[in-house]
């Protein structure tokens, strides 16, 4: 399971590194999380999760601070959380999470991205049941045994621990995100290559060579949409 998540994150990171759009999206997500509760991560757990993920994507502090100040001040923008589900070729499944202040625009953009790139929208619930909400942490330069010993002692709701390319990937129950984070920090581990709550597919598919480019284009188009925050799928890309 570890390699599959790494492959997906590496694909996203290589593309996101070439654009500042990812920072703008984090700005919106931080603002929305802060407006839902207190703009203080110590008392707002949803905000704390977003900020931890932003850190692993190297979001500049200035952008984080601007979003928090906006939430503390007169910011009155209203965003709606939306989830779209759809299909690609060969049994591939896609989940699109969005934050938008214009529902009609977002729905139209997401539908167009599917339809123009060999996919199609599904009804609510048609795909999500094949994914599990999962807390994922990546830790560099630690052994699997060392990490396992820490987490098992804390009864931290661990689903799996995988060592891959000098990195340990920990999969945990989503409601244990903060406990896992606390266990690591108490052990002196404060830097993560990944720290987020994601939708993990229960099974993966590999597309035939002629179908993969179009699917990748569909994912790229969806991720580039202004209102889309996250895109999850069950395709294991081949190098």
Automatic annotation (TrEMBL):
Protein name in the entry: Probable transcriptional regulatory protein DQG23_29775
Gene3D superfamilies xrefs: 1.10.10.200, 3.30.70.980
TACO1/YebC-like N-terminal domain mapped to chain residues: 3-73
GO BP: regulation of DNA-templated transcription
Location(s) in or outside the cell: Cytoplasm
UniProt domain TACO1/YebC-like second and third: residue ranges: 79-235
Family: Belongs to the TACO1 family. YeeN subfamily.
Chief localization: cytoplasm
Keyword annotations from UniProtKB, A to Z: Cytoplasm, DNA-binding, Transcription, Transcription regulation
GO molecular function: DNA binding
Single GO cellular component term: cytosol
């Amino acid at each position: 399971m570890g390699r599959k998540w790494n492959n997906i994150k590496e694909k996203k990171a290589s593309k996101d590194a070439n654009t500042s759009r990812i920072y703008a999206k984090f700005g919106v997500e931080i603002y929305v999380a802060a407006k839902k509760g207190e703009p203080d991560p110590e008392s707002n757990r949803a905000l704390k999760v977003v900020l931890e993920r932003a850190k692993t994507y190297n979001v500049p502090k200035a952008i984080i601070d601007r979003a928090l100040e906006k939430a503390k001040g007169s910011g009155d923008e209203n965003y709606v959380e939306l989830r779209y589900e759809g299909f690609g070729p060969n049994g591939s499944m896609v989940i699109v999470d969005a934050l938008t202040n214009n529902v009609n625009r977002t729905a139209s953009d997401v539908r167009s991205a599917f339809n123009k790139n060999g996919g199609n929208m599904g009804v609510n619930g048609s795909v999500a049941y094949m994914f599990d909400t999962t807390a994922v942490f990546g830790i560099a330069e630690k052994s699997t045994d060392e990490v396992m010993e820490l987490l098992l002692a804390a009864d931290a709701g661990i689903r799996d621990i995988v060592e891959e390319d000098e990195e340990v990937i920990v999969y945990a129950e989503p409601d244990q995100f903060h406990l896992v984070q606390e266990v690591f920090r108490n052990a002196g581990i404060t830097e993560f290559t990944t720290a987020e709550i994601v939708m993990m597919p229960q099974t993966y598919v590999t597309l035939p060579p002629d179908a993969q480019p179009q699917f990748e284009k569909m994912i790229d188009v969806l991720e580039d949409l202004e209102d889309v925050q996250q895109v999850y799928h069950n395709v294991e890309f081949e190098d």
